[in-house]
Amino acid sequence: MPVFERHVFVCHNERPEGSARPSCMSKATGDLLTEMQQLAKAAGLAGKVRVQKSGCLDQCEHGPMVVVYPEAVWYGSVRPVDAAEIVSGHLVGGRPIERLRVAEECLNTKSCPHRG
Amino acid sequence: MPVFERHVFVCHNERPEGSARPSCMSKATGDLLTEMQQLAKAAGLAGKVRVQKSGCLDQCEHGPMVVVYPEAVWYGSVRPVDAAEIVSGHLVGGRPIERLRVAEECLNTKSCPHRG
User: Please, which residues 4-43 of chain B have a Cβ atom closer than 8 Å to chain A?
Assistant: First the structure.
């Protein structure tokens, strides 16, 4: 297989306490990455979909962040309890989970109303 | 802008010495990530193309690894001196750098002849 069907990056950036922007790791309430990896494997996606950690995805105010390529679907405020829905709905079913997507006016823009 | 035009992930995985698989960071001969980031910014790609670190991309035998989405172009054995060609040729010019691409039979497969 030349490329993964999907490649999922879960932000693992951690900033020092008191930083101007928040960091995804400090907001996580559990191990989102491990949960997604285990569910993806259980769903038979091993070798087809890679779920892995990434550095800062630069959407810090909306973290914990996850981005799924090649579709470039951006999820924000993702909690471990959301992992099952992303895996079954999106990674298996091919339908992005709309309720978890970051609003378009917030994405990749310095004028995002949530940025300080 | 709803999504980056391109999103470049540079592997920064580091394994303990003596690990079964190599790690990209131990093979790097300089700061590939910084070089690519600086060249991308100088080329006017700030806000359009994000160049960032990632965890293990699972193509360890071919590292240092870089993957460019949404095209899913995989580069291997990338040295800091290659950064200029990737930035000007691919990220600006839109033409992947063929000499740096990982061979298709090696990519995302456990039967890659370079895996031990």
Answer: 4, 7, 9, 12
